[in-house]
Amino acid sequence: MAEPVEEKKEAQDTKARVHTYPLIRNAARMIKETMDKKFGASWHAVVGEGFGFELTHEVKNLLYMFFGGNMAICIWKCS
């Protein structure tokens, strides 16, 4: 059984994740819309932590980078 201090910390971490989710979703939407406007349609964006991917993309149209430690951004274009 977890100690009260550990439970409190876990609850705070969960609360912080719930509050940052809309920011992450909005970041992905903003990146996608910007790429669509600048380079044409069919761009996709994923922003988050702890995900893996296998996808089909056009040659030279994939960006995968880490931002601020654990935060990853994956952008790709497929038509």
Overview of the structural elements:
The protein starts with a helix and ends with a strand. The chain has one helix at 4-39; strands at 43-48, 62-67, 71-77. The protein is of the alpha+beta class. It is 46% helix and 24% strand. The protein has a three-stranded antiparallel β-sheet, with helices on one face. It has a single domain (4-77), classed as Protein Inhibitor Of Neuronal Nitric Oxide Synthase (2-Layer Sandwich), CATH 3.30.740.10.
Briefly summarize what is shown.
Helix content is 46%, strand content 24%. It is α+β, with helices and mostly antiparallel strands. The chain has one domain: Protein Inhibitor Of Neuronal Nitric Oxide Synthase (2-Layer Sandwich), CATH 3.30.740.10.
For the termini, the CA-CA separation is 51 Å
- CATH architectural category: 2-Layer Sandwich
Low-confidence stretches: none
Q: Which value, in Å, is the CA radius of gyration?
A: 16 Å
Strand arrangement, major sheet: 1-3-2
| CATH class (first level) name | Alpha Beta
Residues in helix, %: 40-55%
Please give the structural blueprint.
Layout: H1 4-39, E1 43-48, E2 62-67, E3 71-77
List keywords for this structure.
79 residues, DNAL4-like protein, alpha+beta, 1 helix, DLC_sf, Dynein_light_chain_typ-1/2
